[in-house]
Amino acid sequence: MKDYTHYNDCVDAATVDRLLDLNRRFYTERGRDFSATRLRLQPGVKHLLGSLGGGESILDLGCGNGELARFLSTHGHRGSYLGLDFSPVLLAEAGREAFSFPVHFVDCDLSQPAWDEALTHYSATSSSLHGPPFDIVFCFAVLHHIPGASLRSSIPCKVHALLTDAGSFMVSNWRFTESPRMNGRVQPWSAVGLRAEQVDPHDHVLDWKRGGIALRYVHQFDEPELSGLAAAAGFEVTQSFYSDGADRKSSLYQVWMKSGRRRPTV
User: Where does the pLDDT of residue 6 fall: very low under 50, low under 70, confident under 90, or very high at 90 and above?
Assistant: First the structure.
């Protein structure tokens, strides 16, 4: 089995920037269309939310249009929630509703080196904004949009420092190759001016057709790679399962805890 605890990047900085820009443009130009397809939570997300006690402080990386916060609001959550996203379009959608518990949304790009430092700044300047450490960090359908192994691995390392000692990091990643329909949307790298040897294995560019043609970058994790990412950042995987889609295999979910702090799985 390949050792994923130490990455060897084959993606240079210029390619990383190009792929990040591709996704930024997608969520700017097609953000409203994308939001219209995300008006309910996936079954795997709901399963994990069922393990919450209701009083946790939550950080949601890539909060999108705020659907997760809306779900928590209607299910009696009493803790605090901070949602981060880099898309002004999606954040505008998220901020349209009132919530029954403390909710804040912040414009923050996880691909920037100091994104975690911004959390301390925001919490210091706003008495109503909960900052680190957090009891729970969510990262649903986000890591697969981060190009370059070094950049991907840096995010869990930062999350480790943002969690309480007994906190949980809950992640999901898209397994689109499980769907023949989605497989048909994979485009050649020439569509974005790149060659296959310039990107990582399991990197893909997919088309989007709702509201207009667009392209976005996705990296598909397998279970060993995602578990290796956890280990490299000082986490243990306490739960791993597949869910979503017609075959219930469209997304890979994992729950991570700081090494040595393992507790029973949900």
Answer: very low
Instruction: Look at phi and psi of residue 222 and say left if phi exceeds 0, alpha if psi is from -120 to 50, else beta.
Output: beta
Average pLDDT over residues 56-80: 95
Confidence of residue 125 (pLDDT cuts 50, 70, 90): low
**Within-domain flag for 154:** yes
* Distant-in-sequence, close-in-space partners of 213: CB < 8 Å, separation ≥ 6: 207
Residue 264 counted as domain residue: no
Kindly report the CATH number assigned to the domain that includes residue 111: 3.40.50.150
Which domain, by its residues, includes 58? 13-258
What is the C-alpha to C-alpha distance for residues 115 and 124, in angstroms, rounded to an integer?
15
Q: Where are the alpha helices (DSSP H) in the chain?
A: 13-29, 31-36, 43-49, 67-74, 88-94, 115-125, 149-162, 180-183, 223-232
Strand, helix or coil for residue 203 = strand
Say if 239 falls within a structural domain.
yes
Neighbours of 128 (CB within 10 A): 8
192 has a pLDDT exceeding 80: yes
In a domain, 232, yes or no: yes
If one counts the domains in the chain, the total is 1
